[in-house]
Amino acid sequence: MTKARARQAPAADGDHRTARASALDVARAAGVSSATVSRVLNSPDRVDPQTRERVLEAVRLLRYVPHGAARSLRSRRSRMIGAVVPSFEYALYARTTSALQRRLNAQAYSVVVAEHHYDLAKEMRVAAQLIEHGVDAFMFVGLDHAPELFALLEEHRRPYVLTWGADPRSAHPNIGFDNAAATYALARHLIALGHRRFGLLSAEPQYNDRARARGAGLRRALREAGLTLDPRHVRYAPISLRAAESAMSELLMLPDRPTAVLGTNDVFGVGALLACRRLGVRVPEDISITGVDNTELGETQQPGLTSVATPIVEIGTAAAEHLIARLEGRVWERCLSLPVQLVFRASTGPAPKARRAMR
Amino acid sequence: MTKARARQAPAADGDHRTARASALDVARAAGVSSATVSRVLNSPDRVDPQTRERVLEAVRLLRYVPHGAARSLRSRRSRMIGAVVPSFEYALYARTTSALQRRLNAQAYSVVVAEHHYDLAKEMRVAAQLIEHGVDAFMFVGLDHAPELFALLEEHRRPYVLTWGADPRSAHPNIGFDNAAATYALARHLIALGHRRFGLLSAEPQYNDRARARGAGLRRALREAGLTLDPRHVRYAPISLRAAESAMSELLMLPDRPTAVLGTNDVFGVGALLACRRLGVRVPEDISITGVDNTELGETQQPGLTSVATPIVEIGTAAAEHLIARLEGRVWERCLSLPVQLVFRASTGPAPKARRAMR
DNA sequence: CTGTTAGCGCGTTCAT
DNA sequence: ATGAACGCGCTAACAG
Known about the structure:
CATH architecture of the largest domain in chain A: 3-Layer(aba) Sandwich
Mean pLDDT of chain A: 93
CATH class of the largest domain in chain A: Alpha Beta
Order of helices and strands of chain A: EHHHHEHEHEHEEHEHEHEHEHEHEE
Structural class of chain A: alpha/beta
Radius of gyration of chain A: 26 Å
Low-confidence stretches of chain A: 1-11, 355-359
Distance between the termini of chain A: 58 Å
Number of domains of chain A: 3
Helix content of chain A: 40-55%
Strand content of chain A: 15-25%
Number of strands of chain A: 13
Shape of chain A: elongated
Largest interface: A-B, 94 and 94 residues
Oligomer: homodimer
């Protein structure tokens, strides 16, 4: 670790209080009023082409950059959007945010991000902070949030869209997919393969409605097939490979261990694969394993992880379009449910016919 | 895909121009002037404890949230930091940004993100956009950037720190690690294992100084050992598993293919593993493969990918601390070089003694 | 089509 | 310790 040339900063470095060109400077250079400069930049059609050119020339010359804060203060719009996500680990929400941002950047919006690490109180705090920073609208992940959060958004009249879940009956605009249907379909497939004893590796459901819905999908499929989910076969853990592997190890050590284990996302699925690998349990001969999200992490395992492809990127793009439409006063949809698709790989197979250690 | 209840928005939804409580409202409620409200929030010590309490009570009552734009306009500080990264795919820079954000949030800073997708011209544009949005300071990824970018930052007096590279001789503050040393160490290890014919799978080096430095590290190790890197054994590709796998397939089909292939990051390393898997080439018996960054993607492969652990999170935290120090006028370091660590796994082994298809 | 005027909501003088 | 007054840079409203 090298520390080179320590330097004493004489005064705060960040006060960029220099003679930066203002709209008035541009106006003077172009021989017009500052109002015309503003019009050239914000509604160019309402300005004579000739003067418009003169102004743009002055803008280039002075390398004028409008002062966003002043603009926001006056126009009551910041052109900033808040993206509040649980976490940037495992790239899922980062990729959604990336898509959101790409779409928004094209319209000169910027994206302010905040994580809450699955803490609804923290979510509330960061949302308040973003409101203070002036964001015009929000994207949140998940359908369930603190009532106080919605009150805050209402009070400050901030449009928002919930993502990664779709529910037409929700009181709040949402864009996503049917999380329960995803695991329901997986479970149906496994039941058809002869599996009767299921396990579930899930994120803590309390503050994670995606995990909750995905668990519910499994339970519904089982119920419909006259099966039940033994509580001892359910493990909740933080979203990490280590925790998932450890939880799966516990399941594998049970005398009547499941023959099929669903992870509520690919991290749990891959963690489960790792546990099997370490304990010498064959997949899919001895046990079938699935994930959700169809990430490259699961795809590249041996055996490849059967999963459900979720619309990670599409959610971000659609959320951006939803918010832009609202901010520009165009029509918008209250709910958009995007399709998912099962992706079968070698981590799933027929239930083992008989098991030695069964009892 | 379901579209529920289309709704015609009568007017732009986003104009939050409602009677939001202002400092003046709070002042009236507390029976003081707005100046006192400001003082209570910004320098509480300069206010009588009794009145301070009255004001804070009014703040709570009215759920007053200061107007960030007005504050920025007046104080010339937005408490927003721009994080400009190449991409949020593969979680690397997302995790660095996450660490940056976590550290900054604690001091009431928010993080505005932008991606440039390895396009320096785009980087320039998004930086300008962020300046317009008023960010106080920047984190960038990589040491090499357009001269115009630095000119822009200089002109607008925005502090910045370059990351993911460390160079005490750089003209710009930087925090990272020695990219060349990482691959140099890997190459030395492989040379010691008897490898003489090397391959390189790299990101496009033109706008990616990390890839360039990592390639240079390999070349230096080879040069010192009296070896050379055959240009036909070098493949540049976009950072994606597919592209990496395809590039590796080409290398494998060469009659004098390398016995050791370095990927400039784990995506290339894992892509190479996939190619070997598909073509039936045994790793490490027939060929050794390495990556950089020590991601879970590589760690969970079979065989596990030998890699170099890079300070992904530490870079973000250190960058946050660097920028805070500068913005607050404290001392700061021009360069911080963090340690890396080789992580040996089963994807590397001794060079094969003899090869059938050799010629 | 363009200029004039006013004020967005704060923080910061300078008084008292 | 507190208040009055001003202005940051911009755009909305109105006049011409």
